[in-house]
Design goal:
The protein is of the alpha/beta class. It has a single domain, classed as 3-Layer(aba) Sandwich (Rossmann fold). The protein has 11 helices and 10 strands. It starts with a helix and ends with a strand.
Length: 253
């Protein structure tokens, strides 16, 4: 575990994050404040949908910020975490011994691939380059195993999935069609032109993918407020304006 991870995961972590936000550029400050808001909204969503024995999937688990709440809210469930960076996968295995941790990347086909590890901004790492919010990124290509959720997750009822893999969400969703059809989980996912758009995915592609699975798409706040979901046009406008980049998908009807 590197020093940065130790500090972030310590009791000083929240203070360090606030200081970094205050000292960052206006764009980075906006993104970090949005991230904090999305974290809180994700927790609120999980509190509504999870029971003590719910089973969950965390794709792009990183150091376990969301996974920690999954385990706390559903202590009797079986949970699956995916994190291709070796040092973070090892950290998750140590911190969450009850969770099934895989050091694989997730997509719509299994095999092997090259992972773009952003050494000075690990949360931006992914199977492809994205548009980064800083100009000094240091990227190391590392070989990784690639799997699909349908192959990696056994036949248990999944209640909740979180997808945060810096652009690869569309392909990961396509690789989870059996889970979506069988379990009808709530899915919280990141997408936008700077990440998903760099995988050749347009907002209409993402929207119609979900509709094809019998799902509706909304922002987490709209869902929490019981407001109507997005139509395709509004979702596209939100995507392009980047007013939101975290969304929720849930079964229609």
């Amino acid at each position: 575990m590197n020093l940065r991870t130790v500090i972030v995961e310590s009791r000083f972590g929240p203070l360090v994050k606030r200081l970094k936000t205050a000292l960052s550029t206006p764009r980075i400050r906006k993104i970090r404040l949005q991230d904090e808001r999305y974290d809180q909204q994700t927790i609120s969503v999980m509190r509504r949908v999870l029971s003590r024995d719910s089973c969950c999937v965390d794709v792009g688990a990183h150091s376990g910020a969301v996974l920690r709440h999954i385990v706390a809210l559903a202590p009797n469930g079986t949970h699956f975490a995916f994190e291709p960076l070796p040092h973070l996968a090892a950290l998750l295995q140590k911190r969450f011994p009850s969770v099934v941790v895989s050091d694989s990347a997730v997509s719509d086909v299994s095999g092997s691939g090259q992972f773009m590890y952003v050494k000075n901004a690990a949360p931006y790492s992914g199977l492809r380059r994205r548009l980064y919010d800083r100009s000094d990124v240091v990227i190391e290509r590392i070989p990784v195993r690639v799997t699909t959720l349908d192959e990696a997750v056994p036949d248990v009822r999944i209640a909740f999935i979180k997808l945060d893999i810096e652009g690869g969400e569309f392909h990961a969703i396509r690789g989870a069609r059996k889970i979506l059809g069988r379990s009808r989980p709530i899915v919280v996912f990141e997408c936008g032109p700077r990440s998903t758009g760099q995988y050749g995915v347009a907002p209409g592609d993402m929207y119609r993918l979900w509709v094809g699975f019998g799902y509706q798409v909304s922002s987490m706040q709209r869902w929490l407020d019981a407001t109507a979901p997005y139509g395709e046009t509004e979702f596209g406008e939100t995507w392009h304006s980047e007013t939101e980049f975290y969304f929720i998908a849930y079964p229609a009807g």
